[in-house]
Each structure stands twice: as structure tokens, then as C-alpha cells.
Amino acid sequence: MRNGLGVAALVIGIIGTLFGLIPVLFFVAGTLGLLAVIFGFIGRARAGRGAASNGGMALSGAILGLISMALATWGLIVTVSAVGDAATQMDQMLSSATASPEAASPNAKNSQAPRPISLGAVAKEPPFALKVLSASREQTVSSSIDSHKAQGSYVVVRVLVKNTGKSPAAFDGTDSGILDTDSKRYNVDTDATISQNLETGKGLYDEINPGQKVTRVLVFDLPKKATPVVIAMFGAEGSDGSFMYLVKDSELAN
Hints:
There is one protein chain. Helices cover 37% and strands 26% of the residues. It is an alpha+beta fold. The strands form three sheets. Strands 1-2-3-8 form a four-stranded antiparallel β-sheet, with helices on one face. The model is unreliable at 100-113 and 248-254 (pLDDT under 50).
């Protein structure tokens, strides 16, 4: 008796159904389900001709294959919906971050999107209080250690950092980013940033004692035509970040 395809249909159908219960594995469930249906129908046909004796098993495998394919369709819909929701949330965050202060919604406090604070205001990001002192646009940044030339042009942001906590803490701003008028994000130029902070005699990763204030320098390499609007500053591990507007004057203009 040629019972192999009937057995294979049942086994693959069971496995496909189990994978179908996990939405992100919809492609696996769909593939296994299709195979189970094909093997099941062939196995059922063999049983009808008397070449196999497990027609019921083959039929069960085909049915499980159809269930697996249905679950795969459900998983695809769930996955696409989740990705779409995530993209929408990100767009809302960026749109809010790059909006002008005058255009901010009066109900902004009820929105989940971050709202940047104005230049010169103090942002609280425990254990730090952060304040942007200045932002300038430069082609090169130099120190006694080395020199760096921007691919586009550097935006150099100087930040006053105060430790408002009860124990020493290091300000690590290397995860920070700048958003331009097109909602594009630009990361810190790590080498240039570390070099500039060593030049001041205060290394980027040096701990700051409670109550003390230090100035940290963050350097970003932006295309020459990009206009920076907001700095998203992440100074502590696991922080939600602080969004601050940058200076809008001739130094930051195209």
C-alpha cells in the first residue's frame, strides 16, 4: 500500500496549523498548508483506487491544510496591520517633533507624540536636567587630538548637563539625533563628538557628580541643504528622550 502521502499530509497539516497560530509565521503556515492539501488529495485519490488504505488520514491532512492556509491569511492581515500601525505612530511622532511651536495643538498634553520644548528651556531627563546652549553649523571641527571634516556640514550642539540625582552618573548622548524639516533623522557623528568632548577636558563618558554642571558637545553630519529643526536627546540609558527646538537663524539656514 502507498500510504506515504496520506501520512505526510496529516503530519504537515498538523505542523502547519500550529505555525498558523503565530501570526508572524504566516508564510510558513501557508506553505505547509498548501503542501498538506496537495498531498491529502493525492493520498485520498490513491485510496479511492485501492492503492492506499489511509484515505481518512489523507482527508484529515487536507482539511488541516485548508485550516493552516486560513490561519496564514489571518496572520498576514494581523502582521500587515501591526506594521501599518507602527509606521503611523512613527509618522505622528516625527510630524509632532518637526511642527512649529505656533502650530502645536492646544491638546498636545493629551497626545502620545512627543512635543519639543523651546530653545533655552530645561528638559528633565532623570537623573539629568538638559539645556541647549547653542547650535552652530561648521564644515570642520578640530581639536588638539585630531580634525574632522564633514561630508555635508556639521551641526555642533552644545548642551548644559546638570546631574539632579543623588549619585554620580555619566551623560551618554551618542544615541541622540537631529530631525530636519523633512522629518529625516541624522545620528551623532561619534568620532567627532568624542574628540570635541575630550578637547574640553571632560570625556563624554566621565561621570558627573550630583549637583554638578558640565557642558557636553554633540556633533551631527547633515547634508548641506538639510535644515535642522529639532534635537532628540537621549542622555541616559533607557530614557524616553528629550525633544528640543534648535536655533532658527542664519547659522542654521541652508
